[in-house]
Each structure stands twice: as C-alpha cells, then as structure tokens.
UniProtKB/TrEMBL annotation:
<feature type="transmembrane region" description="Helical">
    <location>
        <begin position="49"/>
        <end position="72"/>
    </location>
</feature>
<protein>
    <submittedName>
        <fullName>Uncharacterized protein</fullName>
    </submittedName>
</protein>
<keyword id="KW-0812">Transmembrane</keyword>
<keyword id="KW-0472">Membrane</keyword>
<keyword id="KW-0614">Plasmid</keyword>
<keyword id="KW-1133">Transmembrane helix</keyword>
<feature type="transmembrane region" description="Helical">
    <location>
        <begin position="7"/>
        <end position="37"/>
    </location>
</feature>
Length: 136
C-alpha cells in the first residue's frame, strides 16, 4: 500500500506543474484548431467526438486527483514516521521479502496453483526501547 501511495503521490507532484501551464495551453490550442477545422470542413462530428474525449480525459484527471487527495494523508503519516525514525532509531536488520508459489489440491479437491508473498522488511531499534518492523 505504501509503494502504491508513493507512486500516486509522485505522479501528482510530477504532473501538477505541467497541467497549470504548458499542457493547458496545448490543450486549448489543439481544441481551437479542431473547432476551426470542423467549422470550415466538417459537419460537427469531429468536434463532438473531440469534446467526448476531452470530457473523458478531464474525468480521468479528476479521478487521479481525488485518489491522490485521499491517499496523501497515508503518505504524510509514513513520511512523518520516517523522519522521526531518522532521529530516534537505528536500523538493526533488513529482511528480504519472498514470493511463494506452489501446486496442490484445494479443500474442495481441485488442483490449483497457489501464490503468496511478503514484502521486504526493515527492523528499527528506537530510543523508546521498542523494535519496529516496517514493510518496504
């Protein structure tokens, strides 16, 4: 979950500056070109399809923005813990994650492939006397 949250947060931080400037200008310019072309050479269907595409892109962008908005507190909480751990903890062990696969028979008697796994983990010994294990 943390990796997915970091991924979404990095997308928003990367895309946001472009959306306020350059990309917005390109979208408006392209829309104007399509609109003018459709007025002089078309029957209105190109602009109609273009509007549907732009509405779809706007809804997709809104979805990503809302997703990032809801996931950003999780990222901030994790980042706060990491900052606290830098000052109060030391890394004592790192465990490599593993993927487990197998072939067997299920409880219903059917043959199946079984998959499982666990993420990498880091052990922190902190000055409060507690050892914390965090998934990476």
């Amino acid at each position: 979950m943390v990796q997915f949250t970091n991924f979404i947060y990095s997308i928003v931080n990367t895309v946001a500056p472009f959306m306020t400037g350059t990309v917005a200008i390109y979208i408006v310019a392209f829309s104007l070109v399509v609109f003018i072309y459709d007025i002089f050479f078309g029957d209105g269907s190109i602009f109609e399809w273009f509007c549907y595409i732009m509405i779809g892109l706007a809804l997709a962008g809104l979805f990503v923005y809302i997703l990032a908005l809801f996931l950003s507190p999780i990222y901030e909480k994790e980042q706060d813990w990491r900052n606290w751990a830098k000052e109060h903890c030391k890394v004592i062990e790192k465990r490599e994650g593993a993927t487990t696969t197998g072939v067997g028979i299920s409880l219903k008697g059917q043959a199946g492939v079984f998959l499982g796994g666990e993420p990498d983990q880091t052990g922190y010994l902190c000055d409060d006397g507690v050892t914390y294990w965090k998934n990476e």
